[in-house]
């Protein structure tokens, strides 16, 4: 059973075994507005925690996404090319960006759980 | 709008604010020996009639391109632009309007840019085009940078026929971007071995056709070789009218097509302003520099136009932008578009055929002169002759006989002794039979 962990940059990580799925939170997609394009990394790329890994373009801005965890990219969400609005419809579900093979599960400890994240969002408003 | 002039108090306050004691201090970075001392050598006043007389006298020192048989090309071409083009672009709505950032008040400008993009894409045989670059040379440099971004490779191969000025501009931009340039060399008129110079480190190969010597290149095998190595083909042209006669670069497999649009709608203008044309394949759209205008619908469902894909640009992405360009050559693009609309496909083909026919006729005449060799085998409206003596001096002698007989290659490639006797000659639909006869007669005299 995977639970979501969040960063203060509004990315989430969902872990299943040693595979982490990363995307942006529902709050983030609301703030961005209609997503028109997602620039995804190449499969096979090795990513350090904090590296710029993707770019989300909405009608009003382009935002860099920084990887919340370190690992090797195993899969990217191809469906976003034809249907970037999936990010708005299901940010924390079908609107995932990429999956990677997690190097160090300990990195997850620094991230917020759902409750802590919700509080963080509420407080930053 | 009121004009609010500054007084000395204002100036002192501003200088004080930035910590400078006088305006002269702001020019401290210009070496002292290069700074102007004293005033310019101009009278303090003169009557309008006197000024007119003086300016006319100065202007009379030049021979205008239109007043004598004229055969200079090599990057800018004298074509007939109908009076209606100038008449329309002089309309204040066009002449003084600003960038169409606000679509709700700029639908006219935006529609024009959309039509312009459509024309450029159609002419080049590509999927998409932008709303224009400054000119062909900077467009070419931008195309090379785009290829580096797309392939993530560091080397660009420039074919031998690329206009030397374009090559210098590419060098300027590549040097500071840390990219490697390989500049191929071959004799004028030769096809060289462009395909053979592509390897797995190549980001792009840049081929001009018709090239600076006038030679046409079949881009298809070069495109195939580039794609096989994972590289991109950038096709360049300086004479856009050639697209009315020659297979489009898109049809031949080019990935990016860039060139100069000056020939349509725009005069020689002493070298500028010109209009850079830039087109590419759909899949590369997000890496294309420059403004892009798109078609959409408004809230009521009516068709409208708007600048789009702005996330490629400076004001949104800053260092990550596809270019630092934040403008386009709007008025020149408009002139291009109007002239293109007046010509239509049929008209353009007719003009192109006329240009080519003149070139063939002139090449035949001149190469029949003893000592003159035609080095370009397949050409559109421009060809290179090898003369028995240095071409620069011959061009001066021809000018004294009131014939502006082309551009000596030594002017474009000053270091190259092997090109000193070569002369590049261009013809357009503006050349008459009498012009061709005059050139032949003058050249015979000069060489005898």
Concise synopsis of the structure shown:
The complex is a heterodimer of chains A (125) and B (448). Chain A has helices at residues 26-32, 79-82, 86-89, 114-124; strands spanning 4-6, 11-16, 19-24, 35-39, 46-47, 52-58, 62-66, 71-76, 98-102. Chain A has 125 residues and is of the alpha+beta class.
Description:
- The termini of chain A are far apart.
- Chain A is globular.
- Chain A is α+β, with helices and mostly antiparallel strands and 125 residues long.
- In chain A, a hairpin with a 4-residue loop joins strand 1 (4-6) and strand 2 (11-16).
- Chain A is 21% helix and 36% strand.
- In chain A, the strands form 2 sheets. In chain A, strands 1-2-3-9-8-5 form a 6-stranded antiparallel beta sheet. Chain A has a 3-stranded antiparallel beta sheet with strand order 4-6-7.
- Chain B is an alpha/beta fold and 448 residues long.
- Helices cover 36% and strands 13% of the residues of chain B.
- Chain B contains 13 helices and 13 strands.
- Chain B has helices at residues 8-18, 48-59, 83-89, 92-95, 107-124, 136-151, 164-177, 219-228, 314-317, 330-367, 391-400, 409-412, 433-447, and strands spanning 128-129, 155-158, 180-183, 202-208, 232-237, 256-260, 276-280, 293-297, 303-307, 373-374, 382-386, 407-408, 422-426.
- In chain B, the strands form 3 sheets. Chain B has a 7-stranded mixed beta sheet, sandwiched between helices. A 4-stranded antiparallel beta sheet of chain B has the order 10-11-13-12. Chain B has a two-stranded antiparallel sheet with strand order 8-9.
- In chain B, strand 4 (202-208), helix 8 and strand 5 (232-237) form a beta-alpha-beta unit.
- Chain B is globular and about 75 Å long.
- The model of chain B has no long low-confidence stretch (mean pLDDT 95).
